[in-house]
Amino acid sequence: MDTAASASTSAPQAETGQRSGAAAPLRMTTVSAHYFGGASSDRDHDLRVDIIENIEEDYGMFVWPCSVILAEYVWQQRSRFTGSRIVELGAGTSLPGLVAAKVGADVTLTDIAHNTEVLNNIRQVCGLNNVNCTVLGLTWGEWDEPIFDLHPDVILGADVLYDSAKFDDLFATITFLLENSPGAVFITTYHNRSGHHLIEFLMVKWGLKCLKLLDGFSFLPSCKAASLQGNIQLVEIALDKEKTKWPSAD
């Protein structure tokens, strides 16, 4: 994947730490600024979100194009997010969820439970942006106690369809949350590498239906679109009440 270029990015900084008297490995971090509304620039915007990125860590520490597009969608649809309960799955740097929090949503940001580096970065980013979000370790397909307390109106997921080995765990989690939250929807952006038939197959398998399908660049301001690459789709998904069922183990 190509990383998303932000409107303003600070120079990378090397961070060191001490552990038992020895220096910890260098961590190369940067803070990227993301603008919404107005001209989406540092001089003309309505909302700014700052993200701490680690340029030498795993995928969860970068702002990817799908995240930029989903965050823009949240901003443009902000009236439906204000006052809503939001859960972001695989949040990583959490740009879409942070935009939702900034416009008045009650937001829970989740990522893999054992990925403490990413979860700690999410907490730092929340503090940097002065938002009060719940940060929760949630691994797809695992039924730990915290998931039963989640009742979102909207589930967000940016570029969560990247590993086919995890698709069933992801959709099991999505389906559970939708069933646990009548009327909820799942909104995701994904790279359309093999055609929409893949997500159609998963929706049918898990008793879901498509409410909306958009080209991710169709609503993106030109200043942001110019720095992104890929064939990115946005889809809104809900339970298909006539077909909802858990797949058999066969």
Q: Can you describe this structure?
A:
The protein has 250 residues and is α/β, with parallel strands linked by helices. Helix content is 25%, strand content 28%. It has helices at 65-76, 78-81, 95-102, 116-128, 167-179, 197-205, 222-225, and strands at residues 8-9, 13-15, 18-19, 22-23, 27-36, 47-54, 85-88, 106-111, 134-137, 154-158, 185-191, 208-215, 232-239. The strands form three sheets. It has a seven-stranded mixed β-sheet, with helices on both faces. Strands 1, 2, 5 and 6 form a four-stranded antiparallel β-sheet that branches. Strands 3-4 form a two-stranded antiparallel sheet. α4 (116-128) links the parallel β8 and β9. The protein is globular. The two termini are 34 Å apart. 38% of the residues are buried. Residues 1-26 have low confidence and may be disordered. GO terms for molecular function: methyltransferase activity. One of its GO terms (biological process) is methylation. Keywords: Methyltransferase, S-adenosyl-L-methionine, Transferase.
> What strand order characterises the main sheet?
9-8-7-10-11-13-12
Question: What gap, in angstroms, lies between the N and C termini?
Answer: 34 Å
Q: What would the principal axes of the Cα set say about the shape?
A: globular
Major sheet details: 7 strands, mixed
The total of helices stands at: 7
Biased composition (Low complexity): 1-11
Protein name: Methyltransferase-like protein 23
Region (Disordered): 1-23
InterPro entries: Methyltransf_16
